Amino acid sequence: MSTYAVIESGGKQYKVEKGTTLLVDRLTAKQGDKVALRAVLFRDKEIVAEPKALEKVKVEAKVAEHLRGPKLKVFKYKPKKGYRRRAGHRSELTRLEVTELKMGARKAAAKPKAEPQAEQKAEKKPAKKAAAKPKAKKPSAKPKAKTKAKAKTAAKKDDDGA
After folding, report:
1. How many helices (H) and strands (E) does the chain have?
2. Higher pLDDT, 148 or 57
3. What is the spatial distance between Cα 2 and Cα 16, in angstroms, rounded to a whole number?
4. What is the pLDDT of residues 137-158, one digit of tens each?
5. Phi and psi (nearest 5°) for 32?
6. Confidence grade of residue 2 (pLDDT, cut at 50, 70, 90)
């Protein structure tokens, strides 16, 4: 049973173990820099997939080199139509070497005692506002003005009926 992790880089997922080298889309880090990778899944003695537990997982890699992938040729063609398009590209890649893969026991930062009291006061204030009853609106004494379209149809009915 080996320890491994599934990490995410550039929208793609890779399975890595300690000592693994992998090619990922170009990263901004310089050659020789250490990079922290985001774990999506971790397996040691048991499988860890919960987001809160994955925050404790540490996956570190060293940037070995920056390179370019193989040249890819793209050719589009439609017979008897005179349609031909030629294009191509080379991917910008980074080679990573996984140096560290472990489950850390990070503790949550201790909150100061002043903050919980402020939160309790903030919770009490909205409760008072919710208890207050909204005032009932008085019906307006003015009749509502008819729209032009309704006034025209009413006028036509009066003319037809008279």
Report:
1. 3, 9
2. 57
3. 11
4. 666 666 665 566 666 666 666 6
5. 95, -15
6. confident
Q: How far is it, in rounded angstroms, from Cα 54 to Cα 67? A: 30
* Count of Cβ atoms closer than 10 Å to residue 89 Cβ: 11
Burial zone of 96 (CB within 10 Å; 0-12 exposed, 13-18 middle, 19+ buried):
buried
The rounded distance, in Å, linking the Cα atoms of 43 and 48 is: 6
H helices of 103-147, in order, are 114-131
| Residue 17, both tokens | 């173990």
Measured between alpha carbons, how far is 54 from 62 in angstroms, rounded to an integer?
21
Burial track 35-47 (b if 16+ CB lie within 10 A, e otherwise): bebebbbbbeeee
Write phi, then psi, for 71 (nearest 5 degrees).
-75, 130
Which helix (H) or strand (E) is 144 found in, with range? Answer: none
Alpha-carbon distances of 23 from 103, 116, 157, rounded to whole Å = 24, 47, 80
Long-range contact pairs involving 159-162 (C-beta distance under 8 Å, separation at least 24): none
